Amino acid sequence: MTAAAPAAGGTDVIRSPLVASVEGLKVHFGTKGGRIHAVDGVSFDIRDGETLGLVGETGCGKSVTARSFLRLVQSPPGIYAGGRIRFWSSLARRTGADPVDLLSISQDDLLDIRGNRIAMIFQDPGKALNPALSIREQVAEVFYQHRSDDLLYGLADDPPLIIRRAAGQRARGLERLLLKLPPLRGHAAKLRSRVDVHVAEALAETQIANPRKIMDSYPHELSGGMKQRVMIAQALACNPDLLIADEPTTALDVTIQAKILELIRQLQHRHQTSVLYISHDLSLIRQTSDRVAVMYAGRIAEVGDSDAIFSDPLHPYTRGLLAAVPSASHKRGGLAAIEGNVPELVDPPPSCHFHTRCPFAVELCRSLDPELEMVNGHGVACFAHASAEHLGVMPEELPSFAKRTR
Ligand SMILES: Nc1ncnc2c1ncn2[C@@H]1O[C@H](COP(=O)(O)OP(=O)(O)OP(=O)(O)O)[C@@H](O)[C@H]1O
Ligand code: SF4
Ligand SMILES: [Mg+2]
Asked: Which residue's C-alpha comes closest to atom 5 of ligand 2?
């Protein structure tokens, strides 16, 4: 399953330059019971300015895929077992420079990208924010880490070394003490007030009420929606090229959810940020995404333009997910859950991972692994859409949607 995800459809967004390309990504976990293939050969592209929705049932590997962009999967037990994630920053796109492979660049280069060129919003802002630090300190950290040159600009003709270290949050012990005394005190105060302006602006962008007051608050003093706005302020502070939003509204009630979705959309538009939007909720993905990648048991089952995926799904799993989404046209009792459970991902044999739940599975599906292949402009990993000649089997050995096997 290492085929690159195809660019589906013919819209401008699809033709825009690549921001990231995930190619054959494999992330495993070493456990006593064996090796869990949590992400097992995942490929997809994210293009400039688009939102790619990554959707699938719980445990299918969405978060592990997302965290791999910033190498946040804890190792051990996590193992990056294969593939690469190429990333083009806006600078690389402007200058035609080569992309970097996020899985192999140095830790220093990665820290330079993390929170700066690629930012992440997590599902539970309550856990992601540090309860011991004020909102000012948490948002300011992004500016200190990635915008220290901007903070110093025009502060003084030749800022003393200690002030330069303070702008990068590197001042320690005695240096911190000196910053409280003349002649450095004036510079330090100017630096702090400059950071405060940036923090207040970042918070104001999220339409949070009374940003200056919020800056002095601690996470436990804020509601879930406010905390999520703070995370968004933090994530977008440095105008990243790629925003990864991993279930950003799951912990919120529906009215707040709608406001946060709208906010992400507006900010994405204003900052021209590409977004990888992760959710198990197809209706949310439909609202947010230009293209959709459907993930099942560590693999991409289907990827393509959002309209095509929702109007003409090709993979039995995508069809099953859609049939299980409530809509106004569904009669009472008309929703169909997908039978069975996601399989164990411990040392899986070569097979279509969906075969245990698929009503069309045939012998071939139990012994061979379908590649992600292009069909009418979108990609699908299912033998029902494959060529018998290409696979070297008889046409009657392929599954057919006309024949249910269970
Ligand atoms: N630290 C870990 N140790 C062992 N296995 C892990 C670990 N973290 C994740 N996994 C495995 O990776 C699989 C994928 O996890 P992941 O968090 O990516 O799922 P998900 O699609 O984001 O699910 P959800 O919708 O519930 O957030 C899990 O089923 C689990 O088996
Ligand atoms: S028909 Fe076979 S290959 Fe296609 S989804 Fe079902 S089990 Fe997988
Ligand atoms: Mg998850």
From this structure: 382
Contact between 375 and 6 under an 8 Å Cβ cutoff? The reply is no
List, as one string, the DSSP characters of 272-319.
T-EEEEEES-HHHHHHH-SEEEEEETTEEEEEEEHHHHHHS--SHHHH
CA of 365 from ligand 2 middle (Å) equals: 6
Query: Which residue, 198, 227, 179, is CA-closest to 140?
Result: 198
- Cα(98) to ligand 3 centroid in Å equals 31
CA angle 104, 105, 106 (to 5 degrees): 120
Q: Which atom of ligand 2 is nearest to the CA of 365?
A: 2
Distance 373 CA to ligand 2 centre (A): 13
Dihedral angle of Cα 37, 43, 45, 46, to the nearest 10 degrees: -10
Give the pocket of ligand 1 (CB within 6 Å): 29, 31, 36, 38, 56, 58-64, 77, 280, 345
> Ligand 2 within 6 A of 151 CB?
no
The response to whether residue 360 sits with its C-beta less than 6 Å from ligand 2 reads: yes
Question: Helix, strand, or coil here: 246?
Answer: strand
Closest ligand 2 atom to Cα of 355: 7
Backbone angles phi, psi at 21, to 5 degrees: -140, 115
DSSP assigned state of 397? G
Ligand 2, atom nearest to 315 Cα: 5
Q: List the pLDDT tens digit at each of the 406 positions of the chain.
A: 333 333 333 344 446 899 999 999 999 999 999 999 999 999 999 999 999 999 999 999 999 999 999 999 999 999 999 999 999 999 999 999 999 999 999 999 999 999 999 999 988 888 889 999 999 999 999 999 999 888 888 777 788 888 888 888 888 888 888 888 888 888 888 999 999 999 999 999 999 999 999 999 999 999 999 999 999 999 999 999 999 999 999 878 888 889 999 999 999 999 999 999 999 999 999 999 999 999 999 999 999 999 999 999 999 999 999 988 766 555 555 556 677 788 889 988 899 999 999 999 999 999 999 999 877 668 999 999 999 999 999 999 999 998 777 7
